[in-house]
Amino acid sequence: MKAIIIGAGIGGMSSAISLENKGISTEVFEAVKEMKPVGAAISIWPNGVKCLNALGMGDKIRAIGGDMQSMAYYDYQHGTPLTEFSMKPLVQRVGERPYPVVRAELQDMLINHYGKSRIHFGKRLVNIEQDQHGVTVTFEDGAQAKGDFLIAADGTHSVARPYVLEQSPPRRYAGYVNWNGLVTVDEAIAPAAQWTTYVGEGKRVSLMPVSENRFYFFFDVPLPLGLAEDRLTLKQDLKKYFSGWCPAVHHLIDALDPDTTNRVEIHDIEPFDTFVKGRVALLGDAAHSTTPDIGQGGCAAIEDAVVLADILHTHSLGIEDSLQRYQQRRTVRTRDLVLKARKRCDVTHAKDPQLTDAWYQELRSETGERILAGMCETIEGGPLG
C-alpha cells in the first residue's frame, strides 16, 4: 500500500512518519523549493507530545522544547501579576509536559526523521484524479505521481480542499493582527521558565520559553484587515499600539529584530464535516484551519496523522472505508478545537468589551484551577488521552 502525501509541513511529515511506522509506504511532495516555516514558534501541548512519543520522537521533542514551569497573566499598565500559578498540576493530571518549540526546529526534526532526501520539493499540485484502483496527481511542472490513496496536508490555502468539498469555503478574518518572533531571554521582560502574558485593551503580549535561552514572543492587536504596514516602521507601530503599557512590554519592543519578526493577519475557516472524497483525505490545516488562540493547530495535525495511520493499520475493509472512519473520528474533535479557539479569540481581543473586561476581573481572583482544568479537558480529548 502506498500513500501520496501533499505537503511537507507538520501534518504531512507526521503522516508520512506515522504511516511508515505501520508498514505503509509513502511519497511526499512539497510545493515550495525550500521550507520556510510560517511563524517563529509553536506550542506542542501534551496531547501532541504523546502523539510524537508514539511516533518514536519523544526524546527529540524534549531536546528542542522549552522549559515551561509556570503561567501568569500581568496587568498591562503596571506589569504586576493578575494571577500566577504552576503548570505542575496539569502535567500530573495528563501525564506529559508541554513543549513550546521553534517552528523551524520542529520542522527540521520531522523532516530529518523521515529523510529530507526522500521529499520531492518544488512540486505544486494542480490536478487530482482517482478511480477504484488508486489516485493520480499532476503537478505544475507536468510530472505525475500515483498511489493507492492521497493525504492532502497542504495547509490553510489547500489546493486539494476544493476537490474534496466541491466548493471553496472562505477564510474568515478573526479580527486581529499577530506579530511574532524570537528574542534572548531577559528576566526584565519575563521570568525565564514562565509563560507570561500581558493583557489589556483587548490586546495581548505573550512570551514562552523555547530552547537555547530564547523567548518566543507575540503581540496581538485588533485591527482592520489589509492595513498597510512594513518592517521599516514595525517598532514604531508597536510602540503606538502599546502606548501606555508597562516598561517590560516596551523593553521587548526595543529588543526584537524587525527583520525576523513576522506579521500575520489571523484567519480561520468555518468548520466542515467532509474530510474525505473516495481515496483522498484532508489533514491538518487543510481540514481544520484555526486561529492560534488555544495553541492546538499543530497538535491537531499530529493527532490526525496518528489516528489515520492507526485506522489504516487496524481495519481491513479497504482504504475508502478506513478513510471514512478517519473522518468520523476527527471531524467532531477538530470542530471543537476550532470553535474553542474562536471563542477564546473573541474574549481575548474584545469582540464584546464587556465580556473581555469581565475576564480581566476574573483573572485577578484566578488560582489556576479553572484555567488548567479547561486546558486539561482539551488535552484529554486527544486520541491518546
UniProtKB/TrEMBL annotation:
NCBIfam families: urate_HpxO (NF033623). SUPFAM superfamilies: FAD/NAD(P)-binding domain (SSF51905). Belongs to the FAD-dependent urate hydroxylase family. Pathway: Purine metabolism; urate degradation. Its EC number is 1.14.13.113. Residues 2-338 form the FAD-binding domain. Its cofactor is FAD. InterPro entries: FAD-bd, FAD-dep_Monooxygenase_BioMet, FAD/NAD-bd_sf, HpxO. PANTHER family: MONOOXYGENASE (PTHR13789), PUTATIVE (AFU_ORTHOLOGUE AFUA_6G14510)-RELATED (PTHR13789:SF309). Keywords: FAD, Flavoprotein, Monooxygenase, NAD, Oxidoreductase, Purine metabolism. This is FAD-dependent urate hydroxylase. The keyword Flavoprotein applies. It comes from the Bacteria. It catalyses: urate + NADH + O2 + H(+) = 5-hydroxyisourate + NAD(+) + H2O.
